[in-house]
């Protein structure tokens, strides 16, 4: 089982996200715990009102909305009753005993998962501390629940990587074939949650693998001057297509301010994984003189994508490595392994345009 916790300042946005899934036939609201009516008798505003009445008791706390997803291995068949029991036990173990919450079963990915919508403001107006909730209480609760209910353990499941990244792996964003904002959102939120990137360029190295990019605009543009950020769909050739979506328009707010804070944390957390990347690259080069495509294929077999940065003339001026196993992104210079072109490109002189053989 994998638990993911998000907090925000908008119960309305979180509830609307889940209710839209229900309308699309991709989710079902299974339970309204600690509500005065059965879930079938509640409309959107009644669901929202129960939680908002609690947040009104503590108006000093701005981050008062909690959105949790519990993700299970694809091989596990979990009944509605079992999911309700799991949710109740989990909420108790993380310190939310007696808090009202809405339980949704989602069917929009390749693995069983549920979403919980609640608030951290208690009936007495006090708040439940959210700092390190995911690392501490949730981590302990997850392990205890895995044992108590006989679930496949996250650490042991060989399929863990696959089902956590299912929203990305299942289908790349293709402009004109799927609803743009929703599909972009699936890609963005999965990448933001699961990868360690230290800059916007490194984040884009991952996003662009799935035909999405984060764009600040040109330096003289209004969006750049105001530190804004938009997300765009890319076509198969990497060209921007369609209408951009503002970062603030997504319910999870992947703004430049948010990303800048993540850059600092991620840069520290990924240092321990540099050695794996260096060793993997060195081993790949042991085969002798490699072409670019041969090196790319070798690294892909080890779960590493090489994202090349090229100018308009096709000359490669940089490399970013996306390690899908450690979930870390590194610039070539950051790994001290920006590979000399002569090691992987046959017969091309330095400075000449690079064309794939």
Q: Could you explain the architecture of this structure?
A:
- The chain is an alpha+beta fold and 357 residues long.
- It has 3 domains: 2-155, BirA Bifunctional Protein, domain 2; 166-266, no CATH class; 271-344, no CATH class.
- It has 13 helices and 11 strands.
- It has helices spanning 11-23, 44-55, 80-93, 134-148, 160-164, 166-169, 180-194, 200-207, 222-225, 256-269, 274-285, 292-301, 341-344; strands at residues 2-8, 27-33, 65-71, 101-106, 113-118, 212-215, 230-234, 240-246, 304-310, 316-323, 328-331.
- The strands form 3 sheets. Strands 1-3-5-4-2 form a 5-stranded antiparallel β-sheet, with helices on both faces. Strands 6-7-8 form a 3-stranded antiparallel β-sheet. Strands 9-10-11 form a 3-stranded antiparallel β-sheet.
- Helix 1 packs antiparallel against helix 2 (44-55) and helix 3 crosses helix 4.
- The model is unreliable at 158-171 and 340-357 (pLDDT under 50).
Nutshell version of this structure?
This protein is an alpha+beta fold.
Mean pLDDT equals 83
Tell me about the largest β-sheet: 5 strands, antiparallel
CATH top-level class of the largest domain: Alpha Beta
- As laid out across the biggest beta sheet, the strand order is 1-3-5-4-2
What is the third-level CATH name, the topology of the largest domain?
Answer: BirA Bifunctional Protein, domain 2
Query: Strand fraction band?
Result: 15-25%
Order of helices and strands: EHEHEHEEHHHHHEHEEHHHEEEH
Tell how many strands the DSSP assignment holds.
11
Give the proportion of residues in helices.
25-40%
How many distinct domains?
A: 3
Q: What characteristic shape results from the CA principal axes?
A: globular
Count the DSSP helices. 13
- By secondary-structure content and strand pairing, the structural class works out as alpha+beta
Low-confidence stretches: 158-171, 340-357
Our Rg estimate from Cα atoms comes to 23 Å
CATH architecture of the largest domain: 2-Layer Sandwich
């Amino acid at each position: 089982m994998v638990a993911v916790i998000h907090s925000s300042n908008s119960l309305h946005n979180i509830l609307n996200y889940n209710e839209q899934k229900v309308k699309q036939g991709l989710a079902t609201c299974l339970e309204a715990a600690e509500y005065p009516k059965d879930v079938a008798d509640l409309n959107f505003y009644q669901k929202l009102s129960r939680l908002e009445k609690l947040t009104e008791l503590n108006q000093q706390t701005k981050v008062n909305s909690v959105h949790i997803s519990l993700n299970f291995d694809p091989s596990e068949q979990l009944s509605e009753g079992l999911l309700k029991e799991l949710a109740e036990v989990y909420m108790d173990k993380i310190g939310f005993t007696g808090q009202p919450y809405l339980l949704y079963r989602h069917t929009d990915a390749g693995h069983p998962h549920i979403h919980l919508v609640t608030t951290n403001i208690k009936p007495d107006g006090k708040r439940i501390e959210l700092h390190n909730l995911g690392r501490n209480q949730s981590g302990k609760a997850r392990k205890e629940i895995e044992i108590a209910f006989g679930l496949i353990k996250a650490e042991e499941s060989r399929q863990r990587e696959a089902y956590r990244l299912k929203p990305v792996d299942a289908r790349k964003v293709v402009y004109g074939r799927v609803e743009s904002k929703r599909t972009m959102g699936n890609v963005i939120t999965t990448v933001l949650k699961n990868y360690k990137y230290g800059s916007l360029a490194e984040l884009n190295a991952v996003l662009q693998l799935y035909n999405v990019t984060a764009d600040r605009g040109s330096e003289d543009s209004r969006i750049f001057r105001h530190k804004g950020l938009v997300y765009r769909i890319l076509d198969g050739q990497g060209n921007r297509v369609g209408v951009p979506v503002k970062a603030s328009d997504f319910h999870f707010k992947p703004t430049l301010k948010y990303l800048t804070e993540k850059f600092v944390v991620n840069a520290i957390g990924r240092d321990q994984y540099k050695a794996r990347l260096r060793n993997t690259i060195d081993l790949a080069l042991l085969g002798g003189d490699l072409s670019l495509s041969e090196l790319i294929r070798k690294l892909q077999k080890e779960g590493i994508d090489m994202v090349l940065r090229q100018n308009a003339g096709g000359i490669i001026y940089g490399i970013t490595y996306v390690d899908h196993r450690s979930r870390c992104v590194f610039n070539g210079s950051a790994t001290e392994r920006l590979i000399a072109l002569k090691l992987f490109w046959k017969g091309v002189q330095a400075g000449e345009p690079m064309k794939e053989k």
